[in-house]
């Protein structure tokens, strides 16, 4: 999955996971890896889909971009090298 933050362009994107984890230890490991972000147990239908680990921005899947993000047409490949 190639996805970049609409705000800072970082590729360090975590996917929101909603609901309760069946395996808490595995869950924490996933969060720690930066690949997932806990979204809570309640889904409202307007929940962000991805979380940027670089700037902590929550954003949405395609077709569900918030107004502020729709104006930003970030060209693909405009990434900054990760510094970690
Ligand atoms: Zn970001």
What does this structure look like?
The chain is α+β, with helices and mostly antiparallel strands. It has a domain at 13-63. The chain contains two helices and four strands. The protein has helices at 24-33, 67-70, and strands at 13-17, 36-38, 50-52, 58-59. The chain has a four-stranded mixed β-sheet with strand order 2-1-3-4. Strand 1, helix 1 (24-33) and strand 2 (36-38) form a beta-alpha-beta unit. It is flat, with a radius of gyration of 14 Å. Residues 5, 7-8, 10, 52, 54-55, 57 line the site of zinc ion.
List the topology elements:
Layout: E1 13-17, H1 24-33, E2 36-38, E3 50-52, E4 58-59, H2 67-70
Parallel strand pairs: 1-2
Antiparallel strand pairs: 1-3, 3-4
The protein binds zinc ion.
Low-confidence stretches: none
- Termini Cα gap: 20 Å
Task: Please give the number of β-strands.
Answer: 4
**Helical content, roughly?**
10-25%
Strand order of the largest sheet: 2-1-3-4
Give the overall average pLDDT: 78
| Share in β-strands | 15-25%
The distinct ligands, each listed once, are:
zinc ion
Order of helices and strands: EHEEEH
The outline comes out as flat
* Oligomeric organization of the protein chains: single chain
Question: Helix tally?
Answer: 2
**Rg for CA atoms:** 14 Å
Structural class: alpha+beta
Could you describe the largest sheet, including whether it forms a barrel?
A: 4 strands, mixed
């Amino acid at each position: 999955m190639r996805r970049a933050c609409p705000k800072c362009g970082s590729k360090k994107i975590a996917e929101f996971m909603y609901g309760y984890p069946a395996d808490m230890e595995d869950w924490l490991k996933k969060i720690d890896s930066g690949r997932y972000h806990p979204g809570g147990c309640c889904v409202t239908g307007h929940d962000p889909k991805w979380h940027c680990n670089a700037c902590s921005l929550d954003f949405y899947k395609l077709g569900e971009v918030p107004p502020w993000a729709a104006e930003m047409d970030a060209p693909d490949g405009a990434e900054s090298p990760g510094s970690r």
